[in-house]
Amino acid sequence: MIKRITSSLPDVRGELFGFSIITIILFHFCEDVEKAGFGGAAAAMTKIYNFALGSSGVEIFLFLSGMGLFYSMSGDPGLSRFYRKRLRRILPAYIVLGGAGWLILDILLKKTGWVQFLLDFSTISFWTQGRRLVWYISLILILYLVFPLLYRIVSIPDGRLAGTLTAVLTAAVIAGCLTLHFLSPGVYDNIEIALWRVVPFILGAWYGRKAHSGQDFTAQAVILCVTGVAGMILMPVTKLRPDFLWGIFSLRLGTLFYPFVVMFIAAAVLSKCGGSRFLRFAGSISLELYLSHVIIRAIMNEIGLKTCYPQNFLLCIALAAVLSVAVSRLFARR
User: Fold this and answer.
1) CA distances from residue 150 to 63, 194, 199 in whole angstroms, order as listed
2) How does 252-290 read in b/e, with b if 16+ C-beta sit within 10 Å?
3) In sequence order, which residues have a C-beta less than 8 Å from that of residue 162 and are 6 or more positions away?
């Protein structure tokens, strides 16, 4: 059963991108509701959503990105073409949406000045100040830059050696995150949202190798799912000892690996249904949806249209959808 699900992932990759961006948008609504301190049904629904899905869409998104990049580099290994293709996908949309968004936020609304605008627009402020609005752009640009090195590791002809080195690299990232937490907690708090997400990206590249060569991914899928479920079960440890090493580790076991359970279930359902045109379309504009949504959400909250209220959040989604389609079509014609 798991073998059929994992082998079908490439077939529903577009739909899974759409699924992940929609779950991310819904997570942001739950995040807003939680910050507003609502009680009753709103608080209950938020807790249920966070337990069932939470921010799983982010990990799924990065896993699929790693997988897609492996396919891309395997089919067209030229470095210059690889980088041009990646930058053409992300920079035009970010320059338009991110540029307009930071201008409105930094110059018109918050009046923090042009220096802060340049730091925010360049995404430097995420690494230096922990300004997380477009943290994904900060991370993915670096992952694009280093991916050819990751590709050389996961594509080593000797499968055992490639698997061992990939596992070592994954463990090194996890160890690095934990080390940073204890040595420089302030820096860690600023950028941990990005650092831990390198793990699913690496695993996505490894799965890309497996899928591209028609190899079995069943054992790895079982390990990831079991680890994720174990992390979720151990999550209460973080409530009792949030600074304890095992508390931090159990939290990340859940948030990093539980999303694979979600992804495999979604892939199974989508495969059974023959896919989804709506999710495939949402997946095709997922980058634009992400950018427009987080920027419009920030602007609305800044001017007092709090997105913790359903009517305002629906307006945010509607505006983001229209803007995403417009920007996507604008650059698709070029």
Assistant:
1) 14, 17, 12
2) bbbbbbbbbbbbbebbbebbeeeebeebbebbbbbbbbb
3) 153, 154, 155, 156, 209
Q: Which of 281, 247, 103 is nearest to 178 (CA)?
A: 247
Assign 250 a pLDDT band (cuts: 50, 70, 90): low
Query: What is the CB neighbour count within 10 angstroms for residue 321?
Result: 17
In the DSSP assignment, the letter for residue 105 is: I
CA distance 72 to 208: 10
Number of domains into which the chain is organized:
1
Distance between alpha carbon 182 and the CA centroid of its chain, in Å? 25
- Are the C-beta atoms of residues 327 and 96 closer than 8 Å to each other? yes
d(CA 186, CA 326): 39
CA atoms within 13 Å, Cβ hemisphere of 325: 7
Residue with tokens 């930071």: 102
User: pLDDT digit string (tens) for 88-124?
Assistant: 999 999 999 999 999 999 999 999 999 999 999 999 9
Mean pLDDT over 310-325 rounds to 96
Parent domain of 80 = 2-332
DSSP-derived secondary structure letter, 306: -
With CA atoms as reference, report the closest residue to 136 among 60, 248, 69.
60
1-50 tens-digit pLDDT: 666 666 678 889 999 999 999 999 999 999 999 999 888 888 888 888 88
- Tokens at residue 280, please? 């495939």
Dihedral Cα 73, 144, 198, 129, nearest 10 deg = 180
